[in-house]
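so ive been stuck on this for like two days lol. basically i have the seq below and the ligand is pyridoxal-5'-phosphate, smiles is in there too. i just want the complex predicted, nothing fancy, no docking runs or whatever. if the output looks off dont worry ill sanity check it later, just need somthing to start from for the group meeting slides
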Amino acid sequence: MSGFDYRDDRLFVEDVALADIVGAVGSPCYVYSRQVLTDAYRAFAEALGAQRSLVCYAVKANGNLALLATLADLGAGFDIVSQGELERVLAAGGDPARVVFSGVGKTEAEMRRALEVGIRCFNVESAAELARLDSVAGALGVRAPVSLRVNPDVDAGTHPYIATGLKENKFGIPLAEAAACYGQAARYTHLSFVGIDCHIGSQLTELRPFADALDRVLPEAARLRRAGLPLTHIDVGGGLGVRYRDERPPTIAAYVALVRDRLAAHGLQDLELVLEPGRALVAAAGVLATRVEYIKETQAKRFAIVDAGMNDLIRPALYGAWQNLTAARRRPGPAREYDVVGPVCESADTFGRGRMLAIEPGAVLVIGAAGSYGFAMSSQYNARPRPAEVLVDGARFHVVRRRETYEDLMRGERVVREARRS
Ligand SMILES: *Cc1c(COP(=O)(O)O)cnc(C)c1O
């Protein structure tokens, strides 16, 4: 089930008409389907079969507590990149023993908190970070579990902003230097080297770069093991792409089959396999609903001006990303060509160009596959309160984050007037 289907002329999210949600909650709003999210998680679990494994959802794709709780209940772990994400996971009832901590810039305070709650592993990205983690763990009198994130230097074939596995990217330790780092393991009295990981980029639509990365990283893992390093897991990162337009990304099943095949080929199938999918779990589970405020025709163009802006969903503006746009209510009558734009004072504030739509002012438009890197990357630019988020569960829907108020916009600020001189 896609979770977002037309019944007659109206778009439904599971068993709720999208127009009813917008009528109750207002516009713009993000709407998520619990069923679609659950189905995506189960697709990973089924494909993993008997393989010892842990699916660590990459929280940065969408950190809404209701989604995190849904995944926690399904048995998911979490991949975090900040203490804020850790606090979200804990607040949602996630198990800290199933959390892996990625990112190149972990602070001492973040390390301390993660050690105190007992996360599963730190994905360490530099020798300097190893030294810092060793001393923070030492001060707490504990041992920190460590995996080294290696950089396999492969081209993910994705947008340069979200490619992370090339040697010129800031991520990971060059593969050639990894053995030397592990070789120093004994020097770090408060670290346990338990894993190896990589993550080469996001929105990958082919298996090839994944296979290339695995075929570089796994032989290294096998060598380390033969040299006596007691590895317990391999973390292959995230990055599996989704379909926004006409991409044909591998299915979850095909992707997991490839990973299992490469593990077996390198004799590592007895290790625990950790995956860190973000987009592949949540993208298709969400849409952004937005109302058409004006239709504006100039000599050059016809614009549909909507009430969502690039502050609410930045992917089209930031990456030139294409996302599907449809009317929540199909109406008879000819479609006409529109540039769909928001109210923000930037020409980049465009959701789509030359889209064929049959709409009038007041119509609700639906921006597809907005469950990942949508709300998570939103801002209050132009002093716009962030939209509400809604979770649909069968025939019911729940506001899982209320729309921000104008008070929220100014929270924590104060006015300081120049001192008067007499
Ligand atoms: C962003 C990120 C992910 C998730 O990427 P997706 O493309 O959303 O699957 C996983 N691991 C790390 C280290 C990341 O930075």
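The chain has a mean pLDDT of 96. The first strand starts at residue 4 and ends at 7.
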